[in-house]
Design a protein that fits this description.
The protein has 279 residues and is of the alpha+beta class. It is 26% helix and 20% strand. A five-stranded antiparallel beta sheet has the order 2-3-7-8-11, covered by helices on one side.
């Protein structure tokens, strides 16, 4: 992988343009629910999740199951926290080679398998083993970055040695009967580590689809949206959040996903953007 180079990234952040109003039409007669499944500041999937239905009673009916499924996905995909009785990404990343194979939840098994499939389909442009590289920049990313030093070339080289080539990923990550085994890789001193941050929100939307009723809009962190029915979805400029570049009037089922460089980034002295999107 190479560093992300200086670019003007024309990636957009999705936001719902039309809010709840008393005016009744095919776009605005809806009910919204914003929720946090935890009683602590920790948010599900570290973002805000919004479920919108046009019928309030149906919305209240499905919310307990929505909360349950989002909580489950969050705990399984979390790479930095331990949850009692849960073997999650954090558990996998802390395992030594002697502790494999590790039994994992069928939902996590499916998510990791899906991640590997996409890795191969994208020829490595998506890669769940990028965690060692991501860690080098992770603490520098913030809405208001104040630290702008690059990791050393040696640190980058060591991290890259643990990012698995897409053509070999099946040789190092073995999935079988709801277990996972991660094999040692030559020259990788810190071990292969997983990061599902780029896929977990979209996967969460997929998991919620079967329990939705009638027309719906699922908004996970404004970057992953799934809809059924007619809605107006706006694409907000990453350079001016008060402006919408364009809108889409959805019809029937639609899934939208995107990313940008306007929240997790820092600037080098020469103005180059370093963001959480890596090539």
């Amino acid at each position: 992988m190479k560093h992300a180079k200086k670019v003007l990234i024309a990636l957009l952040v999705i936001t719902l343009i039309s809010g709840c109003t008393s005016k009744k039409n095919k776009y605005t007669d809806k009910v919204e629910s914003v929720f946090d499944v935890y009683d602590t500041p920790l948010q599900p999937l570290n973002t805000i999740i919004k479920i919108t239905l046009r019928n309030e009673s149906k919305l209240k009916k499905i919310m307990p199951l929505v909360n349950e499924r989002i909580k489950n996905i969050h705990e399984l995909a979390d790479g930095y926290h331990h949850f009692s009785g849960v073997n999650n990404i954090n558990t996998i990343n802390q395992c030594t080679s002697e502790q494999f194979p590790l039994q994992i939840d069928p939902s996590l098994f499916k998510l990791i398998q899906h991640s590997i499939d996409i890795t191969k389909l994208s020829k490595g442009y998506f890669n769940p083993t990028v965690e060692p590289l991501y860690r080098l920049w992770q603490d520098k990313f913030s809405p208001y970055p104040i630290e702008n030093t690059e990791p050393s070339e040696q640190a980058i080289k060591e991290a890259l040695s643990c990012v698995v080539n897409y053509q070999e990923i099946d040789d190092y990550i073995i999935l079988e009967n709801n277990t996972i085994t991660i094999k040692p890789m030559e020259n990788c001193t810190q071990g292969i580590k997983l990061n599902l941050g780029a896929i977990s929100k979209g996967y969460a939307a997929d998991v919620l689809l079967p329990i939705m009723e009638d027309d719906y809009l699922i908004d996970i962190g404004t970057s992953s949206i799934a809809t059924q029915g007619q809605w107006r979805v706006g694409f907000r400029s990453v350079y001016d959040p008060t402006k919408s570049l364009f809108t889409i009037n959805t019809k029937d089922k639609m899934i939208l996903s995107n990313s940008g460089d306007n929240t997790q980034f820092f600037l080098l002295d020469d103005g180059t953007i370093r963001c959480h999107i890596m090539n």
